[in-house]
Amino acid sequence: MPLDNIPLGEIRRHLHHLVALADTGERPRPTRINGADHPMPGQEWVVVEDVTSRAPHTWWVRTAEGSDRTDAAIYLSTPESMAPGEDYDSVRTADARRIALAILAACDRADHLHAGVTRLADHRTQPMDH
User: Fold this and answer.
1) pTM here?
2) Can you tell me whether residue 38 is helix, strand or coil?
3) For the segment 42-59, what is each residue's pLDDT rounded down to a tens digit?
4) What is the rounded distance in angstroms from the CA atom of residue 68 to the CA atom of residue 65?
């Protein structure tokens, strides 16, 4: 397909979409692994939002190994936490997966809207679990 007939804005949108797919194509490796001497030993992922219009927001996602919890939990610290990176909320693993999948689905929908192309699958609905 010759690129000389495609507007620059459309090429940028396609490149942005491809980079977003590449960034979510495989699971990221942990940013750090906290040892047994750490208050929350286990793996930690630090995600810094890539923004240019404001100060970047940082998210922390942790697992805790050796926890006595029976409902394995994910620990999340958001930029809006009282003490970001120190104040964590726990989320059950099953709920964290549902949230993550909902975020991925919303990202797909936003990409489709941004590209001006919607798919039938974007309009599917299912009853929400409460």
Assistant:
1) 0.64
2) coil
3) 899 999 987 776 777 899
4) 9
